[in-house]
Amino acid sequence: MLLLYIDPGTGSMLFSIIIGLVTMLYFVAKAALIKVKFFLTGGKAVASNKNRYPFVIYSESERYWSVFKPILDAFEKRQISVMYFTSAEKDPFFSNPYSYINGEFIGEGNKAFTRLNFLEADICLMTTPGLDVYQLKRSRGVKHYAHVLHSVADATSYRLFGLDYFDSVFLSGTYQEAHIRILEEQRGIAKKELVVVGCTYLDMLNQQLSTFEPDENHLFTVLVAPSWGSNGILSKYGERLLDPLVETGFQIIVRPHPQSIQSEKAVLERLQRRYASSSNLEWNYSRENIGTLFRSDIMISDFSGVIFDYSFLLDRPFLYVNANFDDRPYDGGSIDEEPWKFKILPEIGVELIESSFPTIKEVLLDTVQNETLTKNRLQAKETAWQFRGHSGEKIVDYLAAKQKELGL
Q1: Exposure b/e, 301-315, CB count within 10 A at least 16 = b
Q2: What stretches pass through the bilayer (predicted)?
Q3: For 275-330, what is each residue's pLDDT tens digit?
Q4: Pairing with 331, which of 2, 216, 273, 395 sits 20 to 30 Å away (CA)?
Q5: How far is Cα 56 from Cα 202, in angstroms, rounded to an integer?
Q6: Which residues have CB under 8 Å from 203's CB, separation 6+?
């Protein structure tokens, strides 16, 4: 019996080729059918397509709910119909009733991409990068693709070609524009419409924070919130960092990245066994991170974007570990200039080096009392998070105007 093995990369490429051919044939056949109907009816109007949507929003995960909710709320307020497709079967959308927003679970992975590749809509908005690069293709039935960033860090933080084939991109700050323009020039691709709108998910989290009240029995708390992978804090340092943290006597919360549960399972299991009897260390895996951020007085992270969420929302200090980040697989690696997020880190945070682990208690307390960091955090916030509280409205302003401009 002959067994044929196809590696995941080749499989993705084959799927991309096949689905591209199928969608092309679908739309060619549909166009031909419309012409035949037009001819047979003597040039009279052809029936409208009931499967075409004015606006479609696609969410690939329930963790992006905070990105889309302010946008959906703004659409709802204006009584504009929207179709919300999601790859999360338990998307919070389904427990948030809307009158003008309809939602549908369309599956995950290739199943979702197939549905989207045959999509017919005036405008499609998503956070998913890599449009027209791999499996997720530009549908011939969609007139305009828009992307909304889910981070206040550089827009070039995506994997290669992440934003290249979108028609418009919503930015959190003006500073993100320059590097996108450099990539467009380098690659000879069409210029996108870049619209500074602020940050939807920070707006939503900021609203949630207003409902929180301080704990009267609060203990000084350190949050360890790493990224995942070999350069993340837990894999790189593990007990070498956590041991001295536990010895400080402070309350320690370790919140692993969601991907760590799959990618660093052995590391997590080893560390959880080691600190099972440590009364001042807890593990946090909750879907929402805002409550955990609020409980802490200072955070330790690496190259995770959560450092900006923490700094901008709560105006609290953080330590970061320089993980010697390899930017070659990312769009930022194609630009000679250093990304903003790496330039700003030394100004708004304190780098934690391994030789300082034995004196981690003193480092933490000194960082909390550093007034220069407080001033710099405010300036960085003004740069990266503009139009605070109005991002959803500004996005809908643009999308509604764009639909009218295109004559749709």
Answers
A1: bbbbbbbbbbbbbbe
A2: 12-29
A3: 999 999 999 998 788 999 999 999 999 877 889 999 999 999 999 987 667 788 89
A4: 395
A5: 22
A6: 70, 388, 389, 390, 391, 392
Say yes or no: domain 206-384 is CATH 2.60.40.10.
no
198 strand-pairing partners: none
d(CA 226, CA 257): 6
pLDDT in tens, 89-110: 999 999 999 999 999 999 999 9
Q: Which residue has the tokens 């837990």?
A: 234
Which residue spans of the chain are classified as CATH 3.40.50.2000?
Answer: 51-199+388-405, 206-384
Are 200 and 223 spatial neighbours (Cβ–Cβ below 8 Å)?
A: no
Distance CA 390, CA 71 (A): 10
Largest CA distance in the chain: 85
Least Cα distance to 232 among 153, 161, 325 occurs for: 325
Give pLDDT < 50 ranges for the chain. Answer: 1-11, 13, 26-28, 30-42, 45-47
Residue pair 165/146 in contact by the 8 Å Cβ criterion: no
Contact status, residue 180 vs residue 169, Cβ threshold 8 Å: yes
pLDDT value, residue 20: 54
What CA–CA distance (Å, rounded) separates 69 from 92?
A: 9
Q: How far is CA 383 from the centre of its chain?
A: 19
Residue linked to tokens 């990105």? 67
In terms of pTM, does the model score above 0.90? no
Closest to 30 (Cα-Cα) out of 44, 46, 15, 19 = 46
**Are the beta carbons of 399 and 170 closer than 8 angstroms?**
no
Tell me the C-alpha distance between 331 and 238, whole Å: 30
